[in-house]
């Protein structure tokens, strides 16, 4: 048995309750890495099964979710880059339309309470509706997505296997997508191996880790490397985008320019950085935090100057690279499904 606490999800019993007792679903065991907190996601309402996971995987990579069948979830969330995009600052949609924010990486979502840069969604099973219906992303309706899926004999078979019915609905479509993305757990980086005493940091990485704990850990809390909160990190507002952050959702002036604290896991490959993708390198990010000036609503965690030397910044970046989990980035189970 692998290390960590295993949450046993009785998918078969759940579906039996729904009236599908004679069907053979394959429950998936969701592993909570040792030392990690209990996930926020309520698996009892959507038990993981192999069939549901595979259906969600198929949907994630299928551009059928967009209006003109050119954009899939994977278009902005590529596995090898931590399930985000790296070829442009802002998300791109159908017909070359450009969004207003950089896409967040998809990993360890089972522990998230809020989603999107401004927390506009607080339920993982509802989150896909936003990109599907956004005019600058997929520009589609969930009703039309369902209508297209219902015309596919292939999907009717997959829904039958996953949920015991070939009647495709929006709710089941969202549940399938959730089963895939909630399974994207990253917990086997060099950092994790050091914590498990399987490897050791280099001298430079250790110095960087010490600096991280002194200057960054209050917002990027281990082991998830995020607080799942919203903070003002001192960025000057882009006059073109005029993005006010969480204030758009809460209408509270105190939330002006507050954005979700993103995870730093696999940060080496999830560039560009910040909600608008303004920084291309980790060095630029570290320099930003090292030169912060006090401003209105600046997070209190950032009020103390970092005062990092050039060597300090190099060491800190060296540590951040230990958060790269190559097993996660190249796991064939999360890749484009073969027919």
Written as H for each helix and E for each strand, in order along the chain, the element string is EHEHHHHHHHHEHEHHH
Q: Biggest β-sheet: count, sense, barrel?
A: 2 strands, antiparallel
Number of helices, where a helix is a run of at least 4 consecutive DSSP H or I residues: 13
Return the CATH class of the largest domain.
Answer: Mainly Alpha
**Quick check: average pLDDT?**
93
From the N-terminal CA to the C-terminal CA, the straight-line distance is 31 Å
> In percent, how helical is the residue content?
25-40%
Q: Do you know the CATH architecture of the largest domain?
A: Orthogonal Bundle
Percentage of residues in strands? under 5%
Quickly count the domains: 2
* Strand order in the largest sheet: 1-2
Derived structural class: mainly alpha
Would you give the CATH topology of the largest domain?
Cytochrome Bc1 Complex, Chain D, domain 2
Q: Flag low-confidence runs.
A: 1-22
Oligomer, anyone?
Answer: single chain
CATH superfamily of the largest domain: Cytochrome c-like domain
What is the molecular shape?
Answer: globular
Return Rg in Å: 21 Å
Quick one: how many beta strands? 4
């Amino acid at each position: 048995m692998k290390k960590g606490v295993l949450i046993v999800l009785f998918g078969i019993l759940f579906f039996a309750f729904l009236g599908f007792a004679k069907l053979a679903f394959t429950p998936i065991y969701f592993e909570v890495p040792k030392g990690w907190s209990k996930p926020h996601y309520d698996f009892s309402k959507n038990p993981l099964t192999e069939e549901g996971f595979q259906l969600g995987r198929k949907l994630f990579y299928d551009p059928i979710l967009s209006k003109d069948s050119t954009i899939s979830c994977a278009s902005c969330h590529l596995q090898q880059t931590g399930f985000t995009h790296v070829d442009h600052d802002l998300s791109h949609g159908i017909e070359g339309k450009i969004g207003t924010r950089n896409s967040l990486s998809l990993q360890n979502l089972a522990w998230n309470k809020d989603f999107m840069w401004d927390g506009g969604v607080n339920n993982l099973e509802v989150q896909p509706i936003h990109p599907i219906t956004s005019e600058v992303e997929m520009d589609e309706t969930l009703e039309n997505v369902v209508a297209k899926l219902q015309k596919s004999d292939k999907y009717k078979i997959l829904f039958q296997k996953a949920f015991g019915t070939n009647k495709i609905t929006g709710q089941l479509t969202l549940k399938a997508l959730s089963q895939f993305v909630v399974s994207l757990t990253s917990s086997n980086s060099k950092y994790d191996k050091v914590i498990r005493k399987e490897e050791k940091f280099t001298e430079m990485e250790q110095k960087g880790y010490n600096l991280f704990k002194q200057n960054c850990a209050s917002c990027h809390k281990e082991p998830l490397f995020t607080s799942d909160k919203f903070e003002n990190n001192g960025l000057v507002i882009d006059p073109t985008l005029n993005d006010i952050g969480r204030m758009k959702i809460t209408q509270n002036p105190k939330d002006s320019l507050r954005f979700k604290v993103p995870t730093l896991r696999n940060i080496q490959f999830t560039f560009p950085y910040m909600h608008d993708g303004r920084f291309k390198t980790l060095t630029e990010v570290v320099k930003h935090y090292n030169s912060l000036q006090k401003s209105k609503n600046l997070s209190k965690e950032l009020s103390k100057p970092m005062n990092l030397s050039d060597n300090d910044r190099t060491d800190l970046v060296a540590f951040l690279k230990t958060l790269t989990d190559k097993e996660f980035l190249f796991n064939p189970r999360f890749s484009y499904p073969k027919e």
